[in-house]
Structures are given as C-alpha cells and as structure tokens.
Amino acid sequence: MERVKQEVEGHYESPIVDRIKAESGVLRVDKTTVYLAKQFGFCYGVERAIDLAYAARKVFPDSRIFLIGEIIHNPEVNRQLSEMGIVSLPWKSLTSEYDNLDENDVVIVPAFGAPTEFMDKIDQQGCVVVDTTCGDVMSVWKRVRKYAKEGVTSIIHGKSGHEETRATASRAMGADGKGSYLVLLTLEDVDFVCDYITGKNADRDAFLERFGNSSSDGFDPDLHLTQIGVANQTTMLKSETQEFQTRLGQAIEIRDGEGSENFQAFDTICGATQERQDALFGLLEEKMDMLLVVGGYNSSNTTHLVEIGGEHLPTFFIRNSTCLKSLEEIVHYDIHTRKETTAYTDILDPEAEIMVGVTAGASCPNNLIEDTIVKIFELRGVDKAAVLEP
Ligand code: SF4
What residue owns the CA closest to ligand 1's atom 6? Predict the structure, then answer.
C-alpha cells in the first residue's frame, strides 16, 4: 500500500505548492503575489479513495474493474483511472450493465458511497467490492439510521441529485425500509417546510409538488413532519446548515412547545470541508484583487468555497489553468447559471501590483493548483523557473 501511495503522490505532487506552503502561503515575484489558503485541495477521504482505486488495479491486474460513477468530482483524476482500465458504471439508476457483472469482477464504491440498492446489487452479483466510502460519510449514515430506528424523519441538507445525498437518503429508510426523508437545499425550502409545520401555510398539494422529487416515496407532510432530525451532506456550507437547524427547531417549538423532543439536529459537515471553509475565511483577511478557486464544476465543497469568496471579492471558479486564457480573459463556472462562461477583466493588468488568492476544493490535486499558479505568473511575464526558485 505504501508503494501505491507513493505512486499516487507522484502523479499529483507539486514542488511549487510545497514551496508556497513552506513560505507561509505567500509567493511574491516582481509585481505579482499569490496567496494560498492554509488548507486546500485533497482531503483524507479523497486521498484514501484514490489510493484504494490504484491498489485495486495492482492487486487485480487481470480482472475487469468497475467504478460506480466517479471516484471523486475531478475530471483529471477520473481520466487517469479510466486510462488504467477502470470503467465507470452509471450511478443514477441500476442499469443492465449491473446485470452483466459477476464474481470475477471488481467494483469500486466511490468516496461518496452508493445507495443501498446498488450495494445490494453488486453483492448479489458476487463481485469483489472495494469500498472507498469516506468515514465521515458513514457517520452521517449512522445518524440517519438512528433517526429511522426511532421513527424520526431525516431532513437532509444537501443536493437531492448528489451521489452522497442519494446514498444517505437510502440509509434514512432504515433497515426495514419504513423510514422517511426530505432533502432541502435552500433556506427558502426550509422556510416553506417551517410554514407547513407551524400551520402558517399548510398547502399540502403545494408541498408535494415542491418536494415530491426530493423526498421518500409516499412522503406525507402531515405524518412525516411529526418528528424530524436534521443531518447534512458533508460538504455543505456550515453557516447555512446551522441556520437550517435553527429555523426548523424554532418551527417545532412553535408547534409543540419549548424543549420538544420532536426535533433533533446533528452537524455532519466533515472536518476537511470545515477546515477549507475556515482557511478561506482566513485568506480573505488578506488584501487581494481576485480569488481563483480550482476544482471540478460538480464538486459541492468547491462550490461553497466559491460562494464564500464571491461575497468578498471577484472570484472565479476554474477547472484548471487552461481557463486562464489571457490577462483579460478567464473562462469560469458561474454557480448561479450553472454554466461555464467567459469573463473579461482588467484585474491582471500587467503594469499593476496584483494580489491573487488561490484555493481548491477537496477533490483537486496539487498539480492542478500548481499549473494555475504558474499560469498566473506566466501571464504576468514571470517564467516557471523563477516561480520555482527558492
Ligand atoms: S470532503 Fe469530507 S466527507 Fe468527502 S471525502 Fe473528503 S473528508 Fe470525506
């Protein structure tokens, strides 16, 4: 395993990132300064998942190896696994491809985990399972299973179509399948539910229309909001999750009285997500002209870093250094329109002193961060050798 780890690190390491870390997160060359967040990039869960995927290839060199969906939300990493012959299976529904698996096949479960029906299926097919589900995700499952056992509905703060939330929702059904869940994404969703709980707006049809696709089958708001417990996708924005808990707790108190036991909450945001959000708040104390957030566009924790940055300064969500087209042109992902777009800006003005902040989500390897930093300097007329020089 140690050799596998070294091989993985060899793919994704970065001497420039190491240098900036060693220099307290700041690299200044001529008129360009780059600030790097204190915590960024690969988290322990992602590192472990990639290590296990590489190890699976080494241990089963002659077997067909499959992966449920993507190992993590980073196209570069997924491409490398694909080049190693690891084939991605559909993750939204159990297709006929799963029927064709057998006991000679290896199936890797990604860091987000997979819904129980997928786990049951690969088990029935007799496959060798390499489960890379992160321990922090499993903690959430423990919590929602407990809710189900107690007859409590899980209110999951997350994206209903996200792999991790789908996996968590399936566990919220409990061992007997009689549990219930409701996935809420926004504070508007929460207020809608709170109004239903307090009776301010108990429009059942409107409720079912709004949440029909993000709740358990047969969800009945008159029944399933009697006792609720909050859990969250591990990569959500902490402040928002806390607000979810506060508002839902207050709604239950209005309906059932102070100290009611019909409400439970448990913060299941993972340590790595929290550290990256906290580190970004620290970085934002620096005077900066621009923030670049590097990561896969479908990465939840990266999106939240973009949200935080965007409240303070011009922030661009880029998938890699190729998005920095020129000093004036940046291709980036707009988290509001959910589309890649092009921004034209004079922030990188070659004549001005500029300060650029850089951070990255938990699924972004250091080599992509390095490429981005090098590109900033190169666009500003500083070559890579000067950036590498101690
Ligand atoms: S972001 Fe958190 S939950 Fe997800 S893999 Fe990393 S440590 Fe685990």
Answer: 45
